Amino acid sequence: MRPLAVIGNVNVDLILGPAAAWPKAGTEIIVDHDELRVGGAAGNSALAWQALGVEFEIAANIGSDQFGRWLSEAFGHRSKKWPIRPEKTTLSVGITHPDGERTFFTTKGHLPRFSLADVFAVLDAARLGSGYALLCGSFLTDDLTEQYDAFFDWADSHDITVALDTGWPLDGWTQENCAATRTWLSRSGIALLNEIEATTLAGIVDPIEAARHIRLHMPQDAIVVVKRGPDGAIAIGPEGVLVSVGAPIVEVVDTIGAGDVFNAAFLAALAGDAPLLSCLIAGTEVASRAISTLPRNYGGPTTLQEPVR
Prior knowledge:
Blueprint: E1 4-7, E2 11-17, E3 33-39, H1 41-52, E4 57-59, E5 62-63, H2 66-74, E6 84-85, E7 91-96, E8 102-106, H3 116-122, H4 125-128, E9 132-136, H5 142-145, H6 148-157, E10 161-165, H7 175-185, E11 190-194, H8 195-202, H9 207-216, E12 223-227, E13 233-236, E14 242-245, H10 258-271, H11 276-291
Parallel strand pairs: 1-4, 1-9, 2-7, 5-6, 9-10, 10-11, 11-12
Antiparallel strand pairs: 2-3, 7-8, 12-13, 13-14
Helix pairs in contact: 1-10, 8-9, 10-11
InterPro entries: Carboh/pur_kinase_PfkB_CS, PfkB_dom, Ribokinase-like
GO molecular function: kinase activity
Pfam family, one: PfkB
């Protein structure tokens, strides 16, 4: 199996809900469930790998408070080299709604100060050679994002394929954010996008044609994946061939981090040299299991070895 790493945002998530209507100011409502858990795109993907029994490395930083220590403890030996920032740890409160949507309140915290030096302090390039690095949280890790050119140079020099999932820009998909993302994708071997991101970046309504357009501006053997929620996922592979899968029908409990879990299962299958179709199936099935269970369940170490249906 090829080596795997994830690089980016790890923070604390407090999930509450569901809340059908937003309460009036000064009032209080009771919700059915709560969960305090590791969050952030990088954290969500790493948790999935950990549960699936996949070997990986994770480069992140933490704040200098009890939440930072708690995040570090969640990843044991993998977090020993994580830099500690003097800022408080980033905290995100997610309010879920009955229709599957969610609302977030997030503090700035430690994430903007995650840097390329922090990545180098954690990752061993020699061990990651010929592997995959999942790069997350581009619009939250300000210091690292400013150093993306140097990061891509480093990855190229060690034959590390970058899989990019930028996350949602805080100020939306402005022309500036779209231009920056297209530049990053031009140096990424894998694009992991949701449907809105793909169609917005391409300026094309049809997600398949949007994926084809994006791939034209990426390296020759690039893979473009478009995650479509309950409609499954599609991918355009190195030969330009379209593959697609549907998603299992499940009763949704909590969709927070669904795309991050998909990324983890997809890349784990890809690192095991599975066909692209099998990678899509792994991503959709593990993500569907995660969003329909409380406490969250990923299926365990045998999931990625189960026969493809």
